[in-house]
Design a protein that fits this description.
Oligomer: single chain
Bound molecules: sulfoacetic acid, manganese (II) ion
Helix content: 25-40%
Shape: globular
Largest sheet: 8 strands, mixed
CATH class of the largest domain: Alpha Beta
Radius of gyration: 24 Å
Number of strands: 31
Number of helices: 16
């Protein structure tokens, strides 16, 4: 097929990749519904996909059991020197990594089709958006990219003859010899997997995995790791944040972005249905926010993605009705269980489990089975536009002006339900020290405290110390227009181990307090760690919360906080002289306030 592309740099790169990877054919993706349906039909025929009888245009995929999640150990920030990648990233020198990966790429697409996917992160025509082009040998990736990004001819058109794009080369790393039968989920062994970023040249190379963020390169690779490095150079922000609009009964709008480590209810918060009368919430994004200072000096946020790649287990009408409402059609399910009726199922879905299902490994499953039916990291890929609470403004090219940043973590003790930073520097301190207890969803022992600064530990494309400095510099530029910064913990427990706060839609009560702080309607109460609500400032109408529980949720224990300081010190020490002095000063101020 002759190429529909007029962009000289793109044509050259595609040609180079084809010579290196030696696919049987090259296909330029047009992003059309026909293209998606054609690829899905072919994958269904080959046995890679299962069309779901119960959900129109929806399919189930089962991955190889060795390829079920992002591989952080195999993810690299390949800057010229190790210190530019910093202590929180894996590093291999660019020449060495390119040498190794070029060897792997040589002939890696033999027997397969090479797809060229021109895509836009952010709506076309937005000053915040960026173009990427992913080359992949996985038709599953093509279909997912259709949902997660804006793909196709419109982008190629916009790329013209010389527009810039971020090249993203992906291969599953499983060439087919002549006559060799394919498997449902081809991929390479773990030691051959590499998820590589070259921030100096805005280049992404991924090899060996077909799953999620390893393979859908617009998401974590481009929109966070590469974009964070670009944003630092250009003076904007690429953050691992949801975007939410809250409207008060008087009609005042508040825009909120929030960063949480995994297993802290970020997707639920992004799609919150407030329980307090008169307050309305709309979702603008569930995972990533790109933010630029607008002409009025305020910070504007835009979700660069166009779909949700969400964790399926635990999602239910009870925990997240809007997510369930998004999943009725046009969805790709990966590693969920299949019911006898031809629908999907996962642990934590509403109602009783099916009496029989096929599990994510393709085996018979019943509730008596010793293993889970769905993999804990089973996912849905669904168009954001289908979300029942998506904001009509979610694709507004200029984004929405942010009033509030929320950081958070899961802590059984110590951290109160909510506190507000005294000022921007203090807020950056809260983000930089954000901590969460590990759950079954994380690697490592359950219940360990892990620091995950700004929920960006696996996603920052440069030295995290420099990233903190960039946050401080953005605050200096924003001045009085800077969003207010809050820290929440929905997961505090009583001494007997029961959750004190009901969470989910009731979190709107805490959001309301934040909005009233912004509106200047409540004063809060100063404490050594920040500003907490006075008990009477939290709207608890209609909630039966025992008084002692409320007191515990809003209790600050100076001794427990003092005991945290050595751990914060140790955390900061890893950044050496890249740690901004202003954060060391914040730690000192905290120490003084604790007395
Ligand atoms: O697989 S993704 O990186 O897209 C999702 C996640 O692990 O956070
Ligand atoms: Mn995420």
């Amino acid at each position: 097929m002759s190429s529909p592309c007029r962009n000289a740099a793109l044509l050259k790169w595609v040609d180079e990749c084809a010579r290196l990877c030696r696919p049987d054919r090259v296909v330029w993706c047009d992003g059309s519904r026909e293209e998606y349906d054609r690829l899905m039909a072919a994958m269904t025929a080959s046995g890679a996909a299962i069309a779901l009888k119960k959900r129109p245009r929806s399919h189930l995929f089962r991955s190889d059991p060795s390829d079920v999640a992002r591989v952080e150990d195999r993810t690299f920030i390949s800057t010229p020197s190790r210190v530019e990648a910093g202590p929180t990233n894996n590093w291999i020198a660019p020449d060495e990594l390119k040498g190794t990966m070029t060897g792997l790429y040589r002939g890696c697409m033999e027997g397969r089709t090479m797809y060229v996917i021109p895509f836009s992160m952010g709506p076309l025509g937005s000053p915040i958006s960026r173009f990427g082009v992913e080359i992949t040998d996985s038709p599953y990736v093509v279909c997912n990219m259709h949902i997660m990004t804006r793909v196709g001819s419109r982008v190629l058109e916009a790329l013209g003859t010389d527009e810039e794009f971020i090249p993203c080369l992906h291969s599953i790393g499983a060439p087919l010899k002549p006559g060799q039968k394919d498997v449902p989920w081809p991929c390479a062994p773990m030691e051959q997997k590499y998820i590589a970023h070259f921030p100096e040249e805005n280049l992404i190379w991924s090899y060996g995995s077909g799953y999620g963020g390893n393979a859908l390169l617009g998401k974590k690779c481009l929109a966070l790791r590469i974009a964070s490095a670009i944003a630092r150079r250009e003076g904007w922000m690429a953050e691992h944040m949801l975007i939410l609009r809250l409207t008060s009964p008087e009609g005042r709008r508040f825009h909120i972005t929030g960063a949480f480590p995994s297993a802290c209810g970020k997707t639920n918060l992004a799609m919150i249905e407030p329980t307090i009368p008169g307050w309305k919430a709309e979702c603008l994004g569930d995972d990533i926010a790109w933010m630029k200072i607008g002409p009025d000096g305020r910070l504007y946020a835009l979700n660069p993605e166009s779909g949700f790649f969400g964790v399926a287990p635990g999602t239910s009408y009870e925990s997240n009705p809007a997510a369930m409402g998004t999943l009725k059609e046009n969805v790709i399910f990966t590693n969920c269980a299949l019911t006898d009726e031809g629908d999907i199922w996962w642990e934590g879905m509403d109602g009783p489990p099916p009496a029989h299902a096929i599990d994510w490994k393709g085996r018979d499953w019943t509730p008596a089975s010793p293993t889970e039916a769905a993999h804990p990291n089973a996912r849905f890929t669904a168009p954001a536009a289908q979300c029942p609470v998506i904001s009509p403004d979610w694709e507004k090219p200029e984004g929405v002006p942010i009033d509030i940043f929320i950081f958070g973590g899961r802590r059984a003790s110590v951290a109160p339900l909510v506190h507000e930073a005294y000022d921007w520097d203090h807020g950056v301190f809260l983000g930089s020290t954000a901590a969460s207890e590990t759950t079954a969803a994380n690697i490592g022992a359950v219940g360990n405290l892990r620091r995950d600064p700004f929920a960006m530990k696996p996603f920052c494309g440069y030295n995290m110390g420099d990233y903190f400095a960039h946050w401080l510099a953005m605050g200096d530029r924003l001045g009085k227009n800077a969003p207010r910064i809050f820290y929440v913990n929905w997961f505090r427990k009583s001494p007997s181990g029961k959750f004190l706060w009901p969470g989910y839609g009731e979190n709107s009560r805490v959001l309301k307090w934040m909005c009233e702080r912004v509106a200047g309607r409540v004063t809060g109460r100063p404490t050594p760690i920040g500003i907490l609500p006075r008990q009477e400032e939290l709207d608890l109408q209609g909630l039966s919360l025992p008084h002692d529980d409320l007191a515990e949720l809003l209790r600050v224990d100076p001794a427990a906080w003092k005991a945290e300081i050595p751990d914060i010190q140790k955390h900061f020490a890893q950044f050496g002289d890249r740690l901004p002095g202003r954060l060391a000063a914040q730690l000192q101020r905290l120490r003084e306030r604790l007395g």
